[in-house]
């Protein structure tokens, strides 16, 4: 059996972008620990990894439960060892898009708790474990943010703010972990065809009809998966704190 390229923990791995990341990492030789909120939703991801000839384990947990991170990471390490790569993918959108003047503290706190607080402290907890063991394989922290880390959408302000925080989080961990050879990277997807974007599909379809992006099409979860696999495999070994845009050129300012 070929030696493992590493062990990747992927949060929010039951579907969409997270599932595509798990598949892409598996194809690059990683053992996969797939995390989501319910075990029955992870079966397809585990089966997909195994169909690709890889090894996968499912660990159910709510990463927003920061007090449970140590127990969660104990369970994560049980099948294959301490992860060499963490992919912070789990996240939520606003329940209702609307005027920034109507954002409630409850909605704001919900988005910050899940999208920013949870990955910050999960990264902190896993980084400590990574630093405590020697491993010659490429090691990384990969965080999936959003084009809304820099593009403002006043109809989901709290989502934008949570994703902007992930950008700074990546830089901070990049500085702290560089000496140990652990890279930290941010992936900024644009408009990707997922359950999260389905609610706004007619709007995006109309935008694409009018030349929304230079590479004018919907992004697919597999596009993000390939970017994550490249980073986890160490293909950009002399880079850290880097932002990888997976958005068809949406981020390019045009005059």
The tally of helices reads 8
Oligomer: single chain
Helical percentage: 40-55%
DSSP strand count: 7
CATH fold-level name: Rossmann fold
Structure description:
The chain has 255 residues and is α/β, with parallel strands linked by helices. The chain has a single domain (6-245), classed as NAD(P)-binding Rossmann-like Domain (Rossmann fold, 3-Layer(aba) Sandwich). The chain is 43% helix and 16% strand. It contains eight helices and seven strands. The chain has helices spanning 16-27, 39-51, 69-80, 105-131, 157-177, 195-198, 201-209, 221-232, and strands spanning 6-11, 30-36, 56-60, 85-88, 139-144, 182-189, 242-246. Strands 3-2-1-4-5-6-7 form a seven-stranded parallel beta sheet, sandwiched between helices. It is globular. The N and C termini lie far apart (54 Å).
What can be said about this structure in brief?
The chain is built from eight helices and seven strands. By secondary structure, the chain is α/β, with parallel strands linked by helices. The chain has a single domain (6-245), classed as 3-Layer(aba) Sandwich (Rossmann fold).
Write the layout of secondary structure elements.
Elements: E1 6-11, H1 16-27, E2 30-36, H2 39-51, E3 56-60, H3 69-80, E4 85-88, H4 105-131, E5 139-144, H5 157-177, E6 182-189, H6 195-198, H7 201-209, H8 221-232, E7 242-246
Parallel strand pairs: 1-2, 1-4, 2-3, 4-5, 5-6, 6-7
Helix pairs in contact: 1-8, 4-5
